[in-house]
């Protein structure tokens, strides 16, 4: 399935059910977002910028390879941000969660664990509670958008599962490592 939305207005322009190829006509001088999805796979998003000269046609040829969803595999959700010490989702975070919403909508039997992680600044208890509340915030957003709560398991891991060092070898702060550790992921529990 290929959904094409006007990037400025977020209004759906067209939906194309595709096997191996799809074609559609778009307006000149516009930016579109194409969301490519298939049951059992991660969705893919592409930005399409059309030319501004109406006398020149433009053909866009693109190949998209979707990644199959796997049980017990973690998938990172990029661009899930919060203000310092906060759990409220930003508008940018909601747009990222909308991609997960698309996956959940296209796979109505999927059950996921949505997890939040922190770096090690602050106490273990503080980071654990913060991550739990952030995971719940994401799950609540998806429930508000119509996903059944029984398909979503919020889980906070605090600072217990770093993917990068929080400090450099010399003991100094590793901000890049901390940033990687402050993340939101989902794991497929069942398909």
Bin the strand percentage.
15-25%
> Mean pLDDT, as a whole number?
85
Show unreliable segments.
none
Overall shape: it is globular
| Percent helix | 10-25%
Secondary structure category = alpha+beta
Number of alpha- plus pi-helical segments: 3
What order do the SSEs take from the amino end to the carboxyl end, as H and E? EEEEEHEHEHE
Q: Describe the biggest sheet? A: 4 strands, antiparallel
Output the strand order for the largest sheet.
2-1-3-4
Radius of gyration over all CA atoms, rounded: 19 Å
Count of DSSP strands: 8
Roughly how many Å apart are the termini?
19 Å
How does this model look, in words?
The chain is of the alpha+beta class and 191 residues long. 23% of the residues lie in helices and 25% in strands. The protein has three helices and eight strands. The chain has helices spanning 91-106, 124-144, 175-181; strands spanning 2-6, 12-16, 31-36, 44-49, 74-77, 111-117, 152-158, 184-190. It has a four-stranded antiparallel beta sheet with strand order 2-1-3-4, with no helix packed on it. It is globular. The chain starts with a strand and ends with a strand. The mean pLDDT is 85.
């Amino acid at each position: 399935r290929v959904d094409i939305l006007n990037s400025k207005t977020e209004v759906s322009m067209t939906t194309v059910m595709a096997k191996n190829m799809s074609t559609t006509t778009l307006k000149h001088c516009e930016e579109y977002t194409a969301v490519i999805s298939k049951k059992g796979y991660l969705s893919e998003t592409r930005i399409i910028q059309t030319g501004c000269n109406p006398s020149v046609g433009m053909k866009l040829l693109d190949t998209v390879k979707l990644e199959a969803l796997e049980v017990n595999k973690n998938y990172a959700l990029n661009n899930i941000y919060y203000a310092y010490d906060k759990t409220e989702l930003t508008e940018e975070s909601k747009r990222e969660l909308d991609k997960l919403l698309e996956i959940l909508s296209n796979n109505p039997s999927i059950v996921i664990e949505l997890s939040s992680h922190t770096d090690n600044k602050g106490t273990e208890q503080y980071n654990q509670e913060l991550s739990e509340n952030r995971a719940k915030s994401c799950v609540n957003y998806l429930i508000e958008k119509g996903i059944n709560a029984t398909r979503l398991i919020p889980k906070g891991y605090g600072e217990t599962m770093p993917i990068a060092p929080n400090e450099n070898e010399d003991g100094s702060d590793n901000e890049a490592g901390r940033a990687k550790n402050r993340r939101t992921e989902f794991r497929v529990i069942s398909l």
